[in-house]
Amino acid sequence: MYAVASQRTFNLRTTVQGASKGGLRRHARKAAFVVRASEEPAPETPKTTESAPEMPQEQAATPPPPPPAPKTPGFGELMAFSGPAPEIINGRLAMIAFVAALGAELSTGESVLTQFKDAPVGVIGTFLLFSAASLIPMFKNADREAVGPLTPQVELTNGRAAMLGFASLLLVEGFRGAALF
């Protein structure tokens, strides 16, 4: 902390009165003052009986460093075994696949494997589109928010149920050798 930030010169005219033979005499003189900045003395702190480690004044006045910027997760972190992406993406794809397979099976009477043979580009395109749409918010560290009764936990539960349902549909069709409906 500094008391004065600049240097200035002041002219001061003083009047001195003194006695002399002829009465009062006035003297005028010009004086120049220079004011310079100096550091204020540090306030003394009361000393306690416990000796605390002393920190230099400069170090105590330094503000803490800003928190580090949030790290953007890489593809390997997101798709790791314990990462957030595999279960979310597989759950979303299973929900789409289960509803689409049952709907197409009810309308055409074809099994899931026959449906895939008929339109592999559409199935793979849907897979890639929904996988990318699920990964982009994760790369940006976006929070998964609830929309009404649809919370992230409900999405995980529905995804798990859809994975079991789709796997069951494939097993039943495999043992029967034909479409379920």
Task: Provide a compact summary of the structure.
By secondary structure, the protein is an alpha+beta fold. It is 47% helix and 14% strand.
Can you characterise this structure?
It is a single chain. The chain has 181 residues and is α+β, with helices and mostly antiparallel strands. The protein has six helices and two strands. The protein has a two-stranded antiparallel ribbon. Strand 1 and strand 2 (23-35) form a beta hairpin. The radius of gyration is 41 Å and the shape is rod-shaped. The chain starts with 7 loop residues before the first strand and ends in a 5-residue tail after the last helix. Residues 1-20 have low confidence and may be disordered.
Which structural traits does this protein have?
single chain, 181 residues, alpha+beta, two-stranded antiparallel sheet, 6 helices, 47% helix, rod-shaped
Strand content: 5-15%
Number of strands: 2
Mean pLDDT: 78
Order of helices and strands: EEHHHHHH
Number of continuous helical runs: 6
**Which structural class fits the helix and strand makeup?**
alpha+beta
Spatial strand arrangement across the major sheet = 1-2
The level of helicity is 40-55%
What Rg, in angstroms, do the CA atoms define? 41 Å
Shape type: rod-shaped
Tell me the distance between the termini: 84 Å
Sketch the major β-sheet: 2 strands, antiparallel
Low-confidence spans = 1-20
